[in-house]
Hints:
The structure is a homotetramer. Chain A is α/β, with parallel strands linked by helices. The first copy, chain A, has a single domain, classed as TIM Barrel (Alpha-Beta Barrel). Helix content of chain A is about 40%, strand content about 15%. Chain A has 14 helices and ten strands. In chain A, the strands form two sheets. In chain A, strands 3-4-5-6-7-8-9-10 form an eight-stranded parallel beta barrel, surrounded by five helices. In chain A, α1 crosses α2 and α4 packs across α5. Chains in contact: A-B, A-C, B-D, C-D. At the A-C interface, loops of A face α3 and α4 of C.
Amino acid sequence: MSTPTFDPKNMPFRRLGPSGLRVPVFSLGGWLTFGKSVVGDPCKEIMKLAFENGINMFDTAEAYNNGKSEEEMGRVIKELGWHRSDIVITTKLYWGTRPGPNNGGLSRKHIIEGTQESLARLQMDYVDVIFAHRADPNVPMEEVVRAFSYVIEKGWAFYWATSEWSAEQIEEAYHIADKLHLIPPIAEQCQHNMFHRERPEKEYAKIYSSYNIGTTVWSALASGLLTGKYNNGIPEGSRFDVEKNFFSGTVKQLQSPEGLEKIRKVKELTKLAEEELQTTPSALALAWVARNPNTSTVILGATKPEQLLENLKAIEVIPKLTPAILEKIEVILGNKPEPVNQYGRPLLDKFGKL
Amino acid sequence: MSTPTFDPKNMPFRRLGPSGLRVPVFSLGGWLTFGKSVVGDPCKEIMKLAFENGINMFDTAEAYNNGKSEEEMGRVIKELGWHRSDIVITTKLYWGTRPGPNNGGLSRKHIIEGTQESLARLQMDYVDVIFAHRADPNVPMEEVVRAFSYVIEKGWAFYWATSEWSAEQIEEAYHIADKLHLIPPIAEQCQHNMFHRERPEKEYAKIYSSYNIGTTVWSALASGLLTGKYNNGIPEGSRFDVEKNFFSGTVKQLQSPEGLEKIRKVKELTKLAEEELQTTPSALALAWVARNPNTSTVILGATKPEQLLENLKAIEVIPKLTPAILEKIEVILGNKPEPVNQYGRPLLDKFGKL
Amino acid sequence: MSTPTFDPKNMPFRRLGPSGLRVPVFSLGGWLTFGKSVVGDPCKEIMKLAFENGINMFDTAEAYNNGKSEEEMGRVIKELGWHRSDIVITTKLYWGTRPGPNNGGLSRKHIIEGTQESLARLQMDYVDVIFAHRADPNVPMEEVVRAFSYVIEKGWAFYWATSEWSAEQIEEAYHIADKLHLIPPIAEQCQHNMFHRERPEKEYAKIYSSYNIGTTVWSALASGLLTGKYNNGIPEGSRFDVEKNFFSGTVKQLQSPEGLEKIRKVKELTKLAEEELQTTPSALALAWVARNPNTSTVILGATKPEQLLENLKAIEVIPKLTPAILEKIEVILGNKPEPVNQYGRPLLDKFGKL
Amino acid sequence: MSTPTFDPKNMPFRRLGPSGLRVPVFSLGGWLTFGKSVVGDPCKEIMKLAFENGINMFDTAEAYNNGKSEEEMGRVIKELGWHRSDIVITTKLYWGTRPGPNNGGLSRKHIIEGTQESLARLQMDYVDVIFAHRADPNVPMEEVVRAFSYVIEKGWAFYWATSEWSAEQIEEAYHIADKLHLIPPIAEQCQHNMFHRERPEKEYAKIYSSYNIGTTVWSALASGLLTGKYNNGIPEGSRFDVEKNFFSGTVKQLQSPEGLEKIRKVKELTKLAEEELQTTPSALALAWVARNPNTSTVILGATKPEQLLENLKAIEVIPKLTPAILEKIEVILGNKPEPVNQYGRPLLDKFGKL
């Protein structure tokens, strides 16, 4: 069943931000799936298929299904007997797996204890990248940067990165690392999709140009909205149906005027995808994020092998995103972030006009 | 018997100084008790009760009962099977456990050897915070800061701190850490109570504002004086009675004119506590220290479980310490430290008057 | 059979660049031989003979015969029971031993994973020097210098070095190491022979004078061309014959006008060697590189014990290379690199003339 | 037999240079004795007696009897079951224990390999202080300081020190350590006695005042000359008799006019010791070095237990060295080094006179 349908040698690899680590344009994430709906043999099947199709990066977090995502991923990797240097493993710390005042956040205590517990669940000596799953305003940045540098010096990770930090927070981490000769983060795991653009496209602009930070994108399909499957309501068995409680806010928002306006746009994108690119709206949405020069990898979720193969078709769509097509997409979306200059005002064109 | 009488979720947690470590407002210390009058099952009972009531921080020292306090605490924690990240363990080095020229102080030799011996007694791989139990004028500050940074880099502690250091010594530690990119201390374990205020309230003022150092307070009840139990002389079985030799100076001082004046004040405080706050003088005294914004935690001692529960009532007194009540307390005490400005002269008010 | 013919005490030792490590003027390399044509007992015989003749430095690389060179060398050293401090082992990272995006280059991931795999193949806890087998323009220099410093701090190597880096890249490594207080490289493993002089003699001039970098020279015999064995065509069984595919370009180049011109020069050098120095063209060519003050060691290859002994005769030729002889060699070669000053123009003599 | 004759509590302890390590004024060294003339039970007996008399510091070196001194010392300490923190162990690297180009000196290779071999012979995890037994002009100071800092960071030693380095070399080590935030040496093991004063009293003057370096003195008795035992020629069984070859130069020098002049002075010192201080010339000579404020410890050698006890009598002589007595000694010696000011000229007194 798991015969690859895509030549793994065609998987494009990119550097993860400024680092020397190469990551595939599409990687596999274990959020909401591994250790929950996807366990045992099906989990193994999906990871095996991913690897056979060129996806050698697997992303998880201590908090994904309360540690079970890491356990499941670790077990599968061990059973498949992959050579450690052939794969890239990333995990994240912040939300913890236990209650209690020190079982989360970015204190030195949780960064060290949390890393050791993640590695135990993964049955590994190290991960490739460890992410701060959120910023922690209750810990001085010096303590955070020192602790992640410590994790790297101990050999428990090769790099560290951030997730959903503000540009100002990333800037401060660089400032501290530079001052103390410590190690700065290399990537930011952020939400980025056609309906969520301000932070990744505008707020981070200075961070990209100053530090060459790369993004590891989550929610590129806007929780499935951009697949077009909600074009005619919430189908039975879809994520919004199965995970009703988790996504209740999102579902409600979808039924608001703004939500209905989004669905209208998805329908137009679906038409564009099918008629002009001979592809699906999913593949278009994924390719659209992947084509961004600051995107290092787009993290895919998958509950079934077919879904993964389906999404990998986006690789062939990337070169089809010509300036003309991109402009048509902007017209449909109507939400292109306005660039700002360093004085915080909109950039003027060469004639001194906005 | 050990049914909690206090909802552990009501225990307030604070950051330990500038760090990301969270500590409970009241913690449990092993000075003079663990490994001495409190051993075996009673020790276990008290620690279990403390934990069930939200106290997850346990403080000890190499010198407490010559290492026995650490041994007892380590044994109990192992037997209770607590998850390591759920608790905060602090110990201290300086006084040593053996005679000999290098078995104490803050030389690199004793800091490293002493830490390893403390960890062996505690049966732990690391403590959360390691304190320099006193300053050591015979060791250059660079050697001290380097050695504690080494202990942290080895993974034997997450943070280091000081105990009964002068503001000038703490300042020097920050200076050295800053210059050499080493790790500065985060807390100061000092005596602080209604009768001992100059150092914690005045001498450290600049240290609090410059470095956000937090205090872990010992002797908040002034060796029991503030419980009111010496209001009518030294009762049989009280600490001053049982530990006659250790406290002989204190007892003598109590019978001096200054001592009698203190007892007079305690009687007034007792009246205030009972009549205006419907609480005990102990709870008032503990809450008074705990309410100080620079206090990270107040360390409680306990020889019996009841005593611990009794003292935890102070948590409910903290919000009752209104400005009016605090002013009444100042009137009774009459010992408020005079703030000084940076030129060493008393601060002037906005009209240029003292 | 392996009776030494050369007194090992006559082997000259030099410091490897600016470091305190002493290396023999001639060392033994495992490129193209160990783990390929030279395995098992013959490999052991050659290494034993080398050691008995004063050669205590052995050079290999992860990529030499895809890891087999390291395995063979490690096995032999273990079997011979040499005392670790008596020998100098060097290996190199960059080309990797497996396919895949992260199994090569100078990312932190490959430097750390690759070092551990090399040490496993060598059955050693550390090597003396680890080389970056090429520069990697896809990895920031800070990541490279940090990762090699990490390898040294972990105790996996005493020093690190470069191979076939440009002077500008070496300069950048020094800049980063100096800025961040990290460890700079000590040597450059470069090609240097009578027909390949621009880089080692001209490009590196500033690097030698600024940092005292030493070279560990490979291809001192220009793939055998300078032995004179191709003076009358490619003999059966020679490297160019046996390794036809690997050297196809070189062989073709040899038959071009430039190649024939080189052979003409080798014939003249052969005459000079035999008539004026009573030695072979090989010994002359080796001595000529070894006499360069920036050469720390010349790496010899050997497929047979006799070959090694033959080449060691070069040691006796070094002192015979008088200024007059060196000038005759320059006349034959006609390719002396023109020195440049810091403005990139030819240096003027003291009369202001070129 | 080994009943202590001296109350160990009377042993004065001093800080070793600027460090927090306390060393006894008299310590025991293993040069020329341990592992050679003193082995097995006699060695144990001497070390046990030393310890019972307050001497808790034992000094050895990799080169002392080619490693045997370390082996003997390590064996005895293990057999006596001393608590590690009760003793101070020092060893030295430079001369090596094996032939070969990298088995000595101060390269990173020898410092790391040598330390590990010393620790193996001593059967210890660490020594208290590791000395560079000589300076090595063939290794850049940065490599030396980095390597000793590495040894300390690894936990193999608490401090490092120098032996017979010039003031300029020590100054350079401080310069490098300061620039790179590495660890500087704390002591200098130098020859210092009534006939060898220029270096310890004059050359190091600036080093003492700048860095508070302490000395660990060897040869305080000038190879026995100051004991008075050569006052009437070389007696049978004395060190100069037994170790004829090792000391041949010294013995010859003793019979020269300068040597005879020295013996004349020793006779005068003997008279002074006996008549004015009721002690032996040995005790006087030892006390004279020990009383120097820059001396941290004077290392004693001993081949017999009695000899050690005899020498410890010097402790009681120290307070008897009044200014008047010291002046009489200067008159006898006539070799007081002339102090120099920073311009290299003799210091003027307050009236502008020499």
